[in-house]
């Protein structure tokens, strides 16, 4: 019995010591020069969890980023599928199990997930200021330094910046609806050709609707307001429920994935869809999925403009490796490749005027969009992301007050 107890205590002390040593190493990493971090990163395997619902993004990551970081830094980047809820659940489960070296090192996130991870101390940092290529990012830009009304404080690194846009087939819809009053008239005239996706993108559109009901693009600015939300959301659910019989499938079901919305638009069932990255039109037209008559446009009251970010998990086993990968992802080289309109077509998060002259020239001469609307055209309609509680509540209430009603 005493021998078993001694073995248990020794094991417990070893775990505690290892935990203390890991914390000390993590703290030291925040102080080390970049050259030393790069040395530590060499030869590591970095696990990256990200949304994998876009073929062009997957192509960029698998066929450009993965081989390039292997060649440049001898880092094996392994990518797994997962977004907001899956990331949060993974972190919570590992914390409850006291897992010190987690399955995942870095994640692709934005406001709602950033908020939830911060609440459970799931992110490691601040680390962004240590990245050499961070000097090319304008951290005075409120669409970069603030994520869903939350100061980023260098706890996550901006990766792309984009704006939400409405998308329509201009042959089938000569004059698309630009406000709720026009949308109601539209769905009654063209029943079955519009719906709301039960995902991040659909909920983002509902935030634009909420702001319109608040009578202005800044109607949701500031901390979450319970009283305001109850008033506005009641009006929103009343609007949707009084019109959903004219939605796709008579409002009896709602697509759960943006890929399903894309397919429905491609086959002509839906005449209006929507999305980030200014609607994601370019690659879908170039690939032949969308017709060349596809166009993007702004919602009259405004649409969300935001950045998306890369974070490092608190229990990541390869923090140095993750920092090296993230620094590469915000490098002029990787950002230029990502911005190509004939590729991933993602707006760079870098301030191009801060770049060396040769890189400025490369960005200016890169392939531009032929079909999709630009962020410059949408800029006058840009809205800041509201507090994360709005998104969380919309998800829950859309399910209970619309889908299950």
UniProtKB/TrEMBL annotation:
SUPFAM superfamilies, per database record: Periplasmic binding protein-like II
InterPro entries per the UniProt record, alphabetical: SBP, YnjB
UniProt keyword list: Signal
Protein's recorded name: Putative spermidine/putrescine transport system substrate-binding protein
Xref: PROSITE patterns: PROKAR_LIPOPROTEIN
Coiled coil regions, renumbered to chain: none
NCBIfam families with a match to the protein in the record: PRK11622.1
